[in-house]
Amino acid sequence: MALMDAAEQYKILTENIAEIITEEEFRKKLECSVAENKPLRCKLGIDPSAPDLHLGHAVVLHKLRQFQELGHHIIIILGDFTGMVGDPTGRSETRKQLTEKEVMANARTYQDQIFNILDADKTEMVFNSQWLAKLNFADVIKLASSLTVARMMEREDFSRRYQENMPISIHEFFYPLMQGYDSIAIKADIEFGATEQKFNLLMGRQLQRDYGQEPQVAFTMPILIGTDGVQKMSKSLGNYIGITEPPGEIYGKTMSISDDLMPEYYRLATSLPGNEIDALLEQLKSGSLHPRDAKMRLAREIVALYHGSAAARAAEEGFKQVFQKGELPSEIAVYSFTAPVSLVDLMVKAKLASSKSDARRLVEQNGVKINNETVSDIAYQVCRADQFVVQVGKRKFARINVS
Questions:
Q1: Residue with more model confidence, 270 or 337
Q2: What residues are paired with 193 via a beta bridge?
Q3: Is pLDDT above 90 for 74?
Q4: What is the average pLDDT across 189-215?
Q5: Exposed, middle or buried: residue 328 (CB in 10 Å: 0-12, 13-18, 19+)?
Q6: Distance from C-alpha of 252 to C-alpha of 227, rounded to nearest angstrom
């Protein structure tokens, strides 16, 4: 397949990018790629440090999909080896090292989720233990000789920890070296990462030069703000939208974001063309499009990306039924229990809370209702036969039968 004109590719591929290092090198790589009809080798490294992907992770995956659709070769490096060290980026302390078993379990989940966005038939997926585990000590010494301690201390996280007299483990210094060596191993033309990954991406460029390769171009992607509108999207902060969550949950969480986050979510979390987004945001600015309608369109677009348009329409109808008409959802999961049963236990078993501690927190925060009445007693028990609906937050419901 002949590749699209380099100038046209450049226009498409540079949309919604934080920084390209360097733009001139990227233009030249595209021109050579088209002239030789040879796809660019595009690298994304992912350490499977947690089992689920959210919209924040998906920002870079959608950019990779654009490259893929234009004929370029996508290589996903699952960091089973680097994951056992842990990326120190943004950390205030040494990251807990994961076991091989933990890393591989998370990696298998990542493999399933990534292909909700990328074309599995056109994606190469490899583990970096294939080359990192084979390095001997002499190889490691050679690799380490490429970097000075002064250069490493330029990293904001290391510098801050040093100034605050917090420990920095020697093995953490090896992380950017290992990530850089990944670029050497696969001969990467381009590497992608969030803006906070810039140091690691530049390390790949430096090491490729040291090993006689043409340096990769570094693409840094914007960081998506979470649903709280304050901090970056993170599962640990609870401000995330998971790409494998049920359609209704994705729709409802999207509707919960503030209006001023909509432009960012439209550009980073949907697949709409840039000119269409521009027109939509102009309508929003002029007042010809109501913010509620714009947000509902946003929620539909995001749900459709991961579950299809039919699921998006159903999620919207479910949302309208609960929030605009004040009715219960048309479909509520039913769970049966034997008395006596505690509210905390039934919330966990009915999948209304992820754990008992989560359930207690929700009750204490007045986030739980039984038949539309708030329950604030964490010791609440159902001691006799009964039927009722438990609501957690605004979007989670379960019909409970107690016998």
A1: 270
A2: 220
A3: yes
A4: 91
A5: middle
A6: 11
Task: Report whether the peptide linkage leading into residue 270 is cis, meaning its omega lies within 30 degrees of zero.
Answer: no
Kindly report the length of the chain. 403
pLDDT digits (tens, 9 = 90+) for 208-236: 999 999 999 999 999 999 988 888 888 77
Query: Long-range contacts of range 91-97, CB-CB < 8 Å, 24 or more positions apart?
Result: 91/157, 92/157, 92/160, 92/161, 92/166, 93/161, 93/166, 93/167, 94/167, 94/168, 94/169, 94/172, 95/49, 95/172
> CB neighbours (10 Å) of residue 52?
15
- If you search the block for the tokens 């009964």, which residue do you land on? 386
Give residue 343's identity as a one-letter amino acid code: L
**Predicted model pTM:** 0.74
Burial of 256 (0-12, 13-18, 19+ CB in 10 A): middle
φ, ψ for residue 128, nearest 5 deg: -75, -5
- Cα end-to-end span (Å), the chain: 65
What is the spatial distance between Cα 86 and Cα 174, in angstroms, rounded to a whole number? 10
Nearest alpha-carbon partner for 13 in 80, 78, 60: 60
Give residue for tokens 């490493």.
Answer: 152
Q: Distance (Å, rounded) from C-alpha 5 to C-alpha 337?
A: 64
Q: Return the pLDDT at 103.
A: 73
Q: What is the mean pLDDT of residues 363-389?
A: 80
